[in-house]
User: Fold this.
Amino acid sequence: MQTPFYYYDKKLLQETLDVINREASRYAGFHVHYAVKANVDSTVLGMINAAGLGCDCVSGWEVDVCLKAGFPASRVVFAGVGKSDWEINRSLDADIACFNVESAPELDVINELAKAKGKVARVALRVNPDVDAHTHRYITTGLSENKFGIAMNMLDMIVQHAHTLPNIQFEGLHFHIGSQLLDLEPYKRLCERINYLQEELEGKGVRMKSINVGGGLGCDYVSPDENPIPDFASYFRIFADHLALRNGQELHFELGRSVVCQCGSLISRVLYVKEGNNKKFVILDAGMSDLIRPALYQAHHKIENLTAAPGSLKEKYDVVGPICESSDTFGEDELLPTTRRGDLVALRSAGAYGQIMSSNYNCRPTPPSVVL
Ligand code: LLP
Assistant:
């Protein structure tokens, strides 16, 4: 089979979805959306739709992909700091569940476009809660210096403004503090912020139908076999214990990585094993065009030689790709069994933000999927 390719394990994905549904259904009003930006493989999307999750989209193209995959528009929400007019129009036509609005000017544009269609757009306002998610700085989103959301001190004014717009229906607040959170403490602080904001708004007579706390639950990149399914029980419990939901209020989640991360691996073949002065290099046929996370976020994916002779000696290698960039490196001083040309290698935990972030750099084709 031609390498590299992404391999997805349907059984693990189904088990993960079952745990999500089991744990979320313990609490009244909890609704889980899948953040489709993590992976849009058609089988993966089909399974997530069949499990009854909604979709969280961040572009009009993603909205299209979800609708084509069969997700009902009533389960599609649309976030993003820069929504183009066509993306808003497309979503209005489809009658999606909610726009997560990130600024006052965007609110006015949605109102105008909805008015032109004689529609009323349901919106949640995305608030920047200034909560530190303690994650890589490229994937933290809820600090006041980040571009996302509406600053808390402007919220009241914008909520009041939303209520004056005839083609806007205010649904509630939206948050997302960052991605790959393994420590759940920041979610407690998020709950405290939300409780405070909700009381403030209620004091002014504003009621909210729903609250959306975004996504961000991380997965174990170091030990994927020991922890194939993230701890959804503790994650949902944090919100059940710390968020003061009102009677009948809905709580929405937008989980991406935690749903699909562990079910995917990038499978690659060893092209050469090269001796350097003090190093040995394993040169793969997969590169940063196939999996950019190590180059972009200094992320590490566990590397496994799938075809080495059993019991063979372990040696240290730098595992690199074929692309003309020094950052095209998957691991340094990796302890692997003696590795040879032709061996198959798995880069684990690559189901989220792997295939979807692949590019045509060096005119390379993007890697296909194999789902088993
Ligand atoms: N909701 C919003 C508004 C988001 O921006 C994101 C992710 C999510 C939900 C889903 O977050 P998750 O549950 O997947 O953490 N490419 C990076 C991750 C970027 C995440 C961007 N936003 C990576 O490879 O680590």
Notes: The first helix runs from residue 10 to 24. Residues 10-261 form a domain with the TIM Barrel fold (CATH 3.20.20.10). The mean pLDDT is 95. Residues 182 and 354 are 19 Å apart (CA to CA).
